[in-house]
Amino acid sequence: MKLVLLRHATRSPYDGGDSALSTKGLAQAEALVGQVSPQGSLPAPTRLISSPKRRAKQTLTPLSHALHVSLEIEERLDERRQVETGKEFQQRIDGLLEELSNESTHEACVWLCTHLDWLETAMIAMTHDLSEIEASIGFNTAEYKVFRLEDGIWKSKAKGHVP
User: Fold this and answer.
1) How far is CA 69 from CA 12, 104, 145, in A?
2) pTM of the full predicted structure?
3) In the chain, at which end, N or C, are there fewer CB atoms within 10 A of the end residue's CB?
4) 23-34 and 54-67 helices, crossing angle to 10°
C-alpha cells in the first residue's frame, strides 16, 4: 500500500474557523492534478480521504473530479479539538492509520489530506524509515510525503510540494 500524506493547500486569511482556500490555494489544488502519474511524479490514488474542514476538501476536489475517485470525508483527520487530550488525539491518528494499513491491498494508494498538527503527530507515531530530523520537519501548505508500507514499516518514497 502507498500512502500520500498531504497538508491542505493555502487557505484564505480572511475566513474564520473553517477557512476556504485562497486564490493561490485553489490554483495549488488544480495543479495537484498535473502532478499525478502518468503525467507527474505522484502516484494515482485509489482512495481520497479528507478532513471535514472545507480547505482540505477543496484541496482534493479537483483531483477527485479529474480521476473519478470519490472523495471520502473522515472525522479522524480533523485538527485536534480543544477538549481532546494529546493522548486522545494520538489514539485517533493511530486508529485511522492502523485501520488503513489492515484494510488496504498492496496495489492501494490512499491519499490523506489533513492539517499540520495531525501530520506532525502522525510522523511521530508512524514506524518509518525517516531519521528523527527528517520526521520532525513540518509540512508547509500543499506539501506531501509519499510512503509505501513494506514489512510493517512505512518506507519514504517521495516528498515535495505543489507550487
Assistant:
1) 26, 16, 20
2) 0.95
3) C
4) 30
Contact 6, 49 (CB under 8 A): no
Q: Give the mean model confidence (pLDDT) for residues 49-67.
A: 97
Helix (H) or strand (E) holding 89: helix 86-103
- What does the pLDDT average to over 74-98? 96
Which residues touch 154 (CB under 8 Å, ≥6 apart)? 3, 126, 127, 128, 129, 147, 148
Task: Write the pLDDT tens digit of every residue in 76-86.
Answer: 999 999 999 99
Instruction: Yes or no: say if 122 and 5 are a contact pair by the CB < 8 Å rule.
Output: yes
> Rg (Cα) of the chain, in Å, rounded?
15
Closest to 57 (Cα-Cα) out of 31, 21, 32: 21
CB under 8 A, 24+ apart: contacts of 63-71: 63/29, 63/32, 63/33, 63/36, 63/111, 66/33, 67/33, 67/36, 69/45
Note the pLDDT tens digit of each residue in 99-150: 998 887 889 999 999 999 999 999 998 999 998 888 888 899 999 999 999 9
